[in-house]
Specification:
The protein is α/β, with parallel strands linked by helices and about 350 residues long. Helices cover about 40% and strands about 15% of the residues. The structure holds nicotinamide-adenine-dinucleotide and thymidine-5'-diphosphate.
């Protein structure tokens, strides 16, 4: 094996796509997936990789310093791609402490372990921290987030991610830790936990349940297909410059209500419903506290420096996503019923 990589949070939504890409594309890398399997971690996402020789799953918590140190001693990692996080804004509003523990303390545990392991010779090592555009706060009607935009996080989730970004840069500055950071916009696609907007609404439409639109529905997000995010991570890991930050986005802004109406139309087509059936499920509900008005990413640094661009048009990505969820109803049902959490015991006991 030419490299041993630690990927954290690989059983989650984005992590599972990153693991799949790396395991298949780099058969000479050993890929170790460290995941606690919280409510958001689902090993069913990685069923197709279970028998691959260059893939190893390790169940563990990044907040547990001993567990992290033991893993670094066991595998002698050359690189880390760190995705493990608590990731849902609404949950962070209810329970900020869990976000501080995993997103901040967990990240610092990984940084310390990498620093100790690489102290003799940092050549060829890299700590890649996967972050979010939410660290930049909220935009007005115009403007884009660039890599130089000041941090102004507004939710407990965004604050915990901003704090972890600061620690990564501080370790680079203070201890010479080789690192890159990327800040990405909203992802969508297969395997996303049905608490985030698109999979939640797809699942509700399937079950003819109401579609809870927060506030006036005029909040804006920039959407990127998850596989395109994984491809960007691969490029940045291999070709990004040490100590740099890269913004990743879809060049694809939508107001929530417009996105939801398109989703409703496509769901009617996919389910063979009369046009308008799904739209009638839209229900305006109380707004999220501190709801960020607009996120929009300028991803031109990544495009110009590393030649990355989203590969899919939004309509294509949305249809692919809907098709996947409808073809994988069992996956959705296992999550909603909680049965997916038994999979680990059956598979690994
Ligand atoms: P997710 O919630 O789907 O998955 C998170 C994974 O981390 C799960 O498998 C979970 O079990 C694991 N995990 C959580 N706490 C852990 C702990 N203490 N120790 C070990 N593993 C733990 O998240 P996601 O949407 O795939 O996001 C992945 C990363 O990308 C996060 O860092 C997130 O901040 C970032 N990000 C997400 C988006 C998005 O739109 N989803 C956009 C930009 C950046
Ligand atoms: P979400 O998927 O939670 O991502 P984020 O808050 O990290 O951007 O939400 C996307 C947008 O959709 C956001 O503006 C909040 C809104 N939203 C709703 O209107 N209703 C919902 O039930 C959810 C989950 C989100």
């Amino acid at each position: 094996m030419s490299k041993t990589l630690l990927i954290t949070g690989g059983a989650g939504f984005i992590g599972s796509h990153v693991i799949r890409l790396f395991v298949n594309k780099y058969p000479d890398y050993k890929i170790v997936n460290l995941d606690k399997l919280t409510y958001a971690g689902n090993l069913e996402n990685l069923k197709d990789l279970e028998n691959k020789e260059n893939y190893i799953f390790e169940k563990g918590d990044i907040v547990d310093e001993d567990c992290v140190n033991e893993l670094f001693a066991k595998y002698d990692f050359d690189g880390v791609i760190h995705l493990a996080a608590e990731s849902h804004v609404d949950r962070s509003i209810k329970n900020p402490m869990e976000f501080i523990m995993t997103n901040v303390v967990g990240t610092v545990n990984l940084l310390n372990a990498a620093k100790n392991l690489w102290k003799e010779n940092i050549d060829g090592n890299l700590f890649y921290h996967v972050s979010t555009d939410e660290v930049y706060g909220s935009l007005g009607d115009t403007g884009l987030f660039s890599e130089n935009t000041s941090y102004d996080p507004q939710s407990p989730y965004a604050s915990s991610k901003a704090s972890s970004d600061h620690f990564v840069r501080a370790y680079g500055n203070t201890y010479g830790m080789p690192y890159v950071i990327s800040n990405c916009s909203n992802n969508y696609g297969p395997n996303q936990f049905p608490e985030k907007l698109l999979p939640l609404f797809i699942n509700n439409i399937r079950n003819r349940k109401s579609l809870p639109v927060y506030g006036d529905g005029k909040f804006t997000r920039d959407w990127l297909y998850v596989v395109d995010h994984a491809i960007a991570i691969d490029k940045i890991y291999h070709e990004g410059r040490n100590g740099e930050t890269y913004n990743i986005g879809g060049f694809n802004e939508w107001r929530n209500i417009d996105l939801i109406k398109i989703l409703c139309k496509q769901m009617d087509i996919a389910l063979g419903n009369e046009t308008g059936t799904s739209e009638r499920l839209i229900t305006y509900v109380k707004d999220r506290p501190g709801h960020d008005k607009r996120y929009a990413i300028d991803a031109n640094k990544l495009k110009n420096e590393l030649g990355w661009e989203p590969s899919l048009q939004f309509n294509e990505g949305l249809v692919k996503t809907i098709t996947w969820y409808l073809a994988n109803e069992k996956w959705l049902e296992n999550i909603v019923s909680g049965d997916y959490q038994k999979y680990y015991e059956q598979q690994y006991s």
